[in-house]
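Bump. Still looking for NAD-dependent epimerase/dehydratase domain-containing protein structure tokens.
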Amino acid sequence: MTLRELTSSHLQVSRRHTIYLNSRPTIHLRLSHTPASCCIPHTSRNLRLQPAASSLSSITHTLTAMSAAKKLVVCGGSGFLGSRICKYAVARGWDVTSVSRSGEPRWDTVTSSPDTPSWSHSVSWERADMLRPATYVPLLKGADYVVHSMGILLEADYKGVVSGRDSPIAGLRKMFSSSSADRGVNPLDKKPGEDIKPSDPKLQFSYEVMNRDSAVALAKHAAEEHVGAFCYISACGGAPIMPPRYISTKREAESAIASNFPRMRGLFFRPPFMYDSSRKFTVGMAAMVGAGTIFNGLTGNYLKDFMGAAGTKPLKVDVVAGAVVEALSDDAVQGPVEVPEIEDLAAKAWRKTML
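Sorry for the wait, here they are.
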């Protein structure tokens, strides 16, 4: 429909379609034939707002916000951290899509209530397999930002030990082995949309595949879709009780993404242990980690390298989520984002809500 054909029509505010005047993008509008409290009749080449009930400044503010809306895709958006990243992005008026195997989360597993929060209705909860890029690539089209917020803390080997399928000695040897040979695939060698599942199904839930390869594959396809910024949720460090490959695979993912996709702004968040009252056990763990932080401080950080994440102050998960959204919106933020900067970004985001 041309502008001349709009003479008898009305325009209703939306963020899904754009009308171009003089070959320059203006506000996001949608055609409508139904009267609204605020209508924009086409009276000349220039469109003029003629508010019926709302003030001109209020309408202008709304249109400006909609025209500036960003599209965010959060892979792992149904998880503990990912769901909160979605929440803070929705609060900014962004167009948010969550990608996970489950779609919409079971809210009693990520919040303190089984009830569906009101903000979640603004999120598109999509299902996809991160090891099968063809299932999620279409969702990346038009995205401004992409977040990889998924991974595993313990491998399937651990589950085998607990269930009795593997002997404790054999299982623990696999977990704490420093060798990553034949455990993953190279997503950079794969054709567009090709699966990155390892030939051995037992290795599908290895650190190499889940923490590293899935992230590199996602970054590859995000770069192909000309996504502006890619945020990878890494970790601040390991811990004495954690297999060394847990952190080494995350560092490998950071390096691969930064070196292979330099035109895409890469952010590598390195949060410490995260907690929230909705997950009671995390509060107790946070207290233990906090005690380790105090002890590490009393020793002049002498045991910092040994203790890793266990010697770093834990953060509330909402702090990290708010910081991620703030970092994505700030073009100056790039590369590794350590704990102090995470706190600064979260504080900056909080101050904006006070304006």
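The domain at 71-150+224-353 is CATH 3.40.50.720 (Rossmann fold).

Edit: fixed formatting.
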